[in-house]
Amino acid sequence: MSQRQVLQVFEQYQKARTQFVQTIAELATRPQNIETLQNAGVLSLLRPLLLDVVPTIQQTAALALGRLANHNDDLAEAVVKGDVLPQLVYSLAEQNRFYKKAAAFVLRAVGKHSPQLAQAVVDCGALDALVACLEEFDPGVKEAAAWALGNIARHNGELSQAVVDAGAVPLLVLCIQEPELALKRIAASALSDVSKHSPELAQTVVDAGAIAHLAQMILNPDTKLKRQVFSALGQISKHSVDLAEMVVEAEVFPAALACLKDPDEYVRKNVTTLIREVAKHTPELSQLIVNAGGVATVIDSVGESQGNVRLPGIMMLGYVAAHSENLAMAVIVSKGVPQLAICLVEESEDHIKAATAWALGQIGRHSPEHARAVAAANVLPRLLRLYTDTESSEDLQLKTKKALKSILQKCTYLPALEPLLHEAPSDILKHVVGQFSKVLPHDSKARRLFVTSGGLKKVQEIKAEPGSLLQENINSINSCYPEEIVRYYSPGYSEILLERVEAYQPT
Amino acid sequence: MADLELLLLQIELIKEEFITTDRADEERRVKEDRAALRIQSWFRGTRLRSYLRHLQRKATIIQKIWRGYIARAYFRKKVKVQCFVMKMNFYNEMAVRIQKRWKGYYVRKYVHNYYARKRYLEGLTKKNEQVRRTMEEFAEMQRNEREHHQVECEEQKTCLQAQRMHFLLSTHQIPGVFNSPYRDFPHEMELQMKSIKPLLVKDIQQKRQAMDPSAPGDTFLKTRPLPPIPSKKPQGPFRDPATVLQQRYRPLEPTLRVATSITDLEEAREELRRGEWRGRIIDHAFQPFSHAHKNKKYERSIHTTSSFERLAYGTVYFREENQEKLRGKKPFKSIFTTCNVFDKFGQLYSNAGKIV
User: Fold this and answer.
1) Smallest CA–CA separation between A298 and chain B, in Å?
2) Long-range residue pairs from B208-217, CB within 8 A, at least 24 positions apart, any chain
């Protein structure tokens, strides 16, 4: 055979290989095909192609592998077991940028499913190679490397520590400053994943100077970037007061409030998360946010959102009100209580209702003024209903009970307490009766109203153990009224009167 | 002689008398001795007793005086202590009153300032409203921008469509797809296509590449035009015209000596003098060491002078009139010594008796 014919055989083989790999890569984009591919044993076929002579085949094989591993974790595990990773890591250091992108894509896809797989990726020594990729010129390579690092660091603190130890954080901060939007997004998300596990990691991120750059990107019009930036800032500031103060010093605040009107709900959620994390540490930080008009904007955004997106806003109001009674009054003045009452009614999920009940409890527990503001929004009967509802989860019941107790102990607004007298179970009832026994001795109009509204009758019907606090309170209420009235309303009085009628002998 | 005889006779008588009396005396002597002794002893006793009584009385007097003195001293001490306690109680009560007022004021002004809190809450409501309004405006602006952007995108898309489908434009003979005779009026596409130039082939290539981000290879060279080749080189090694013009029309740069005028020094002095005159506020010169107060003439007050003579009031004091009574007495003190009550305050070591 002539030389040309021999070479033709090789060319055909190469074409076949290229076509195979390209088709597999295309098929792997569709989720329906993946099972079929898996059953056909595609991984064992792709593995030798990774070591192919032709660079395009290598790259496409890596791309196909990445798409497969991306899809579910069985395939990712199979990729790990197939001992592919060391080869990929080695070639990450050597090859051209398209291969680097594809290899980083594979590492990302493998690392995202579970901590064990991410640990396997780290054990292959991928971190150093990925960090070396972060120093490349091509933004696509940097993006792929940053994404892979972010996926690895997401799972737990040890993996994040490993990423930080490889020296990734300063390079990620440099990546944030690059002009390409996609790279910025990924770098911000990677920083957010690194800093969310522990204060030391967050401190490392802050020491690399991340906060200033993140703060600059707040007013960028791109939605996804804003999501990641706010998420990163929130994760940094949640760990300690110093970190929160550093975030605040970067002059994030009035600008962040403007983003609360963003049409994208995840941006709003992340902004409220950031505000919540900053406000929860000290009263001074909460005061700062209140003075900047943060409470009003958060309340508006709670009103405009639905479901889980509201949760950080509700918790933020609770944290602010919990610090001091001035701040709780500020929340009340900003019309927070009607909004929280609406949330309590509208929301269907228990954990959001529990958070709302907790927030209302924190607002109302400080003084009679606060309790009156909360009670006037008609919140107490709803809380009671949630408490007594058998379908509420334990957490919800516990939180509503605590909220009711703390509000009731300060509530002197009797019109709001009346309906509770009729419906409450005994452990709430003793607080209600206690409040009545505190207010009634001093206010004659309230006494009159108490009688006419049927409250006195209800109090007589309460069975209490003699000597208990409830009985003492009932006695003190009874002592506010003349004996005849008390006897008139005591149960069974009509029978006694009728017996007297029967026993009466007219002379 | 007779007298002597008489006398000698009498001597015998006297002797006899003497012996009898002596005998009687002897007999009486013991008795009288004893009586005398008794009298003497009584007398001695009385004398001694009266002496003892006298001594006792004096001793009593001394003791009385001494006891009185001690008791009075003790009493005075007690009175001093009581006085001190009374004063301290009084001071404490006054201090309580002061503290009561001060604490009330302090708490009401700095700790729980009701009006400050009220103002703060009012300010907060205003700020909230302002923030809400600004946010509304901002959201409105953003919405408008987005809509605007969307509308622009739509327009661009229709533009592009029209450019691409330009071949479907209707001609005089053949009405196009969008200008069907069965329609009342032509489709907007028709009108768009009429107003737009068709797409050229090289533009198509460019647009395709601009919209396709996944194209492999460098788009760097293909999308950006190459820099122009410099066409005309100037003839010969001429100098840069800018430098030539600069040299030709260089401005004059005189030295400092030439630039200053001849009368510069006098002008400067004049300037200084004028400046000093302008700035001067006090017109008469400062005179150190002048005994200015001695130059003043004493002006008598009108109240103590009258047209006829000086009035005694204000110049003569009533004390001066009664000189005999006042002899030996010191004048009234019009200046008191300072009250040393609080001198030692805070300077004693123990807190127990900040006894002043």
Assistant:
1) 10
2) B216/A98
> Residue A398 in contact with residue A360, Cβ under 8 Å?
no
For residue B66, the model assigns a pLDDT of 96
- Enumerate residues 6+ apart whose C-beta is below 8 A from B143: A263
- Nearest Cα residue to B162 out of B177, B151, B172: B177
Pair A207, A164: CB distance under 8 Å:
no
Fold of A253-411: Leucine-rich Repeat Variant (1.25.10)
| Most A-contacting residue of B134, B135, B144 (CB-CB within 10 A), to test interface | B135
CB within 8 Å: B130 and A329: no
pTM of the model: 0.70
The tokens 């509700």 sit on which residue?
Answer: A314
Report the residue of B113, B131, B141 to disrupt the A interface, i.e. the one with the largest count of A CBs within 10 Å.
B131
The reply to whether residue B124 touches residue A291, judged by beta carbons under 8 angstroms, is yes
ipTM of the complex: 0.82
Partners of B305 in the beta sheet? B310
- Residue B149: is its pLDDT beyond 50? yes
Q: Is the CB of B141 inside 8 Å of chain A's CB atoms?
A: no
Task: Please tell me the distance in Å from B202's CA to the nearest CA on chain A.
Answer: 28
Q: Residue A451: what are its φ and ψ, rounded to 5°?
A: -70, -50
Closest CA to A110 of A86, A74, A146, A164: A74
DSSP-derived letter for residue B290 is: -
> For B169, phi and psi rounded to 5 degrees?
-65, 140
B22-29, Cβ contacts within 8 angstroms, sequence gap of 24 or more: none
State the Cα angle at A344 between A339 and A346, rounded to 5°: 90
Low-confidence winner among A10-14, A25-29, A141-145, A503-507 (lowest mean pLDDT): A503-507
- Mean pLDDT, rounded, for A85-93: 85
Residues in A closer than 8 angstroms to B139, CB to CB, are: 261
Q: Over the range A119-131, which residues count as b (16 or more CB within 10 Å of their CB) and which as e?
A: bbbbebebbebbb
- Residues on chain A touching B131 (C-beta within 8 angstroms): 257, 292-293, 296-297
Interface check B127 vs A, CB under 8 A: yes
d(CA B341, CA B344): 8
Is residue A168 within 8 Å of residue A204, measured between CB atoms? no
Which residue from B117, B129, B131 is facing A326, i.e. has the nearest CB? B117
**In this model, does residue B217 exceed pLDDT 50?**
no
Q: Where are the alpha helices (DSSP H) in chain B?
A: 2-106, 114-164, 188-195, 201-211, 220-223, 241-248, 256-259, 264-279
Residue B200's nearest CA partner among B230, B171, B164, B224 is B164
What DSSP letter does each residue of A53-81 carry, written as one string?
Answer: SSHHHHHHHHHHHHHHHHH-HHHHHHHHH
Q: Where are the domains of chain A?
A: 253-411, 431-501
Q: State the angle between helix axes of A181-195 and A139-153 in degrees (0 to 180), rounded to the nearest 10.
A: 20
Nearest CA distance, B205 vs chain A (angstrom): 24
Residue B33 is predicted with a pLDDT of: 87
